[in-house]
Amino acid sequence: MTESDELTTTPRTTLQHSLPSLVTKLSYKNTDYLGIHAREWISPAVTTYLMHQVATNPNWRNLLDSTEWYFVPVANPDGYQYTFTSSRARLWRKNRRDNGGIITRCKGVDLNRNWNLKWGVGASSNPCSEIYKGIEAFSEPETYGLQRVMKSIGDIDLFITFHSFGQTVLYPWGWTNEAPSNVKQLKSLAKIFSNTVREQSGGRIDYEVGGSGPLYGLASGATDDWAYGILGVPFSYTIELPDKGNYAFLLPESEISNTVTDTAEGVYCMVSSLSGKGRCSRRRARRMNFNPHFRA
Ligand code: 0X9
Ligand code: ZN
Questions:
Q1: Residues lining ligand 1, CB < 6 A?
Q2: Beta strand 22-26 with 68-72: parallel, antiparallel or unpaired?
Q3: Among 40, 240, 253, 265, which one carries the catalytic annotation?
Q4: Fewer CB within 10 A of the end CB, N or C, for the chain?
Q5: pTM of the full predicted structure?
């Protein structure tokens, strides 16, 4: 195959059905994304855009020989669909689980409180709560299906779950204020994201970097802690996308384009720095001197 052939070859795409989310696998190794709270509409937009970049942008090709990407654009399909049904439903967060109950009949489990690492800390047992943890860890088909797929992938180097809002890059732990063992490296890679986005946005978008617990308050049963603590993913993040609370979950349509392109550039540089390939590799990876798990 010639070099120009390679540039025009579309990556092989495999679809796997994990109940009930759809994981799209492109034929490269080692990165992983998802969006899980229904009302945080910018998350599926970012994930879909990233998927498109990876699949079609020739400028990303220098990363792809050594990387494999997994995307879950909508990890909470019922909740997401519900937010389109009325202006009251627009701010729904959980899935649409029928929790039973004779008096309240409150629906929904918070899918980011349902994973089995320290399940229950900073979460609620009340089905009417926005942060209801469910009857047990992985009680929900969405989380149960996703963890099965994630376990089946094998070693994952970088896990990013997109949420909104806040403009923060959060690393573990969320269930305790203790810092994890590779906190320096987690912080360095997070700063690569935030610096890249700041440059790319002409200084407009400034992310704060920090531990989930210290910055957002203790909350367990979330995907980032599970990926880090149970799967052993060395670089695991929750990225709270823009804005900082002005529009909050109702980010205007006019902000989508900037947000997805800024975020994609940030992710590109994270992966480039980790893999030692691509535009951001030399400048950043050497200085940071990390790459402990990357299997190029
Ligand atoms: O509370 C959450 O689930 C996330 N924030 S949001 O406003 N999008 O709901 C933050 C999760 C951070 N990670 C952990 N606490 N482990
Ligand atoms: Zn969220």
A1: 37, 40, 112, 163, 170, 174, 212, 216, 219, 222, 224-225, 238, 240
A2: antiparallel
A3: 240
A4: N
A5: 0.88
